[in-house]
Amino acid sequence: MSTDSPASSPAGPRFPSTLAPPQYYEGLAERFSASVLPTLSPFFAALPRPGARALELASGNGTHVALYAQTHPGIEWQPSECDDFGCRAVDETVRREGIENVVQEAVRVDVIEGEGWEALRRRLDGESDDVKEAFDLVLGNNFIHMIPFPEGPRRIFTSLLSPSLVSPSAKLLLYGPFKHDTGFFSPSDEAFDKEISSRPSSYPLGLRSIDGLARLADETGWRLSERIGVAKGNWVLVFEQQEGRAAGGGQS
């Protein structure tokens, strides 16, 4: 993310306008299991075992990554959040669920800044002296509308590849509400966009265009390979690395 009105306490959230309301998390695991997990599960099942690694961007309070770890054993999960407040929330959920053996401590990654991406690379490099480690899958839920556009998605695309944090066949999955270049998919999407765009922020919040994301992907070594409609008008967008990178081994 970029900048936002700072929290009143140094221990508070760095970007309070982007936080989901507390009621969002009530029954979240059950809702997500029923509506979205069936779409994501085939991508998890296709990962190489053992030793597959997956990176989650914008992990929220850790509910999603806990669900992934509990339903798809054999994958090592790396959650992340944009500030220490979020990382603490994720780590608390992981400890409460007793899944520290498969979910790593959350890393602070503000997608606009280089420091977090470098921290991820150091985390991977520290695991082996002989092999260049990488993530086999990257995903994020309900956050693209809360980061600067187009700077945020562009930085995600480029930072995953330069130097490469992902294996040549790794995909990037983005779940959430989106729009298209000429408008909204539904009145409820338009109402949601109006609500979040009215929040105080130093950059515009709001639903982002799938078409615009596809163009950014094309410019940065990725391509939008699938757009899968899921419950309540949301989407799972599947990005793959462009042919030259996947075929040529793209890691550096």
From TrEMBL:
| Domain of life according to the entry | Eukaryota
Query: Known Gene3D superfamilies for this protein?
Result: Vaccinia Virus protein VP39
User: Where are the stretches annotated Disordered?
Assistant: 1-20
Give me the segments passing through the membrane: none
Q: Which SUPFAM superfamilies does this chain map to?
A: S-adenosyl-L-methionine-dependent methyltransferases
Sorted alphabetically, which InterPro entries does this protein's record hold?
Answer: DUF938, SAM-dependent_MTases_sf
Family per record: Belongs to the UPF0585 family.
What is the protein name given in its UniProt record?
Methyltransferase domain-containing protein
Per the UniProt record, the source organism is Rhodotorula diobovata
